[in-house]
Design goal:
The chain is built from four helices and no strands. It has 93 residues and is mostly helical. The mean pLDDT is 66. Pfam families: OTOS.
Length: 93
Amino acid sequence: MFHHHTKLLVLGICVVYMAALSNSAVIRDKAIRQKRTIPNWSMSASDFHGWVEELQRLGAYDKSKELARIYWAHFPIASQLGYDVPEDQDYDA
């Protein structure tokens, strides 16, 4: 009987240990995923419009067009608005 309880105790300790390892891995994976998140322009739309206004104030219309192209490239409607990347233009370094 004592031997049976010892096996159960060891099994219980192993289960708790494995659960703790699994939980720490989940927390670590969430931290890694948070670091890799892509900035969401829609969450900072006021910043985007502030930059557009500043570029227009400076007369840098070519830069404001480029900023608008980058902004709209994140949305499926970009090609319909004319902000998609032309096929003949290559942006590779």
